[in-house]
């Protein structure tokens, strides 16, 4: 099944339903990411304080249970890195990365291959945010989840490149 796209020189160009669905999902996800990035940047102080309080409570709970040490270290690492400055940087980079992914999706919505490369650049930035800011990932698990999620969407868009023009 195909849906119409914008007309190009009087000719109706078709966009596949699959491409339409993944673009809409990207609009929603990237839009949410943009809002989160703005919120993180603007409310960095309160987010940092709130995160530190939650991490302290979590650390106390973990101490009362028989939890592997790596989980305790993970919680400590997250708490240590949740400074207002880092939260602000995470917010700014998240905003930029999500702006790139949504821009790429808009361009792919219009069946242009260039959007795929912009989308890809956005995901590289989103995945690399902790490494750029801290010099290392906060959590290998979070990085693996981001890579897996992005790989699925990148693959779905790559399958649709044949329907796009340069």
Short description:
By secondary structure, the protein is mostly helical. The chain has helices at residues 17-42, 44-63, 69-81, 84-109, 114-134, 140-159, and strands at 2-8, 11-16. A two-stranded antiparallel ribbon has the order 1-2.
Question: Any chance you could write out the topology, listing elements then pairs?
Answer:
Elements lengths: L1 E7 L2 E6 H26 L1 H20 L5 H13 L2 H26 L4 H21 L5 H20 L7
Antiparallel strand pairs: 1-2
Would you mind describing this structure in some detail?
This protein has helices at residues 17-42, 44-63, 69-81, 84-109, 114-134, 140-159, and strands spanning 2-8, 11-16. It is mainly α. α1 (17-42) runs antiparallel to α4 (84-109) and α5 runs antiparallel to α6 (140-159). It is elongated and about 65 Å long. The model has no long low-confidence stretch (mean pLDDT 86).
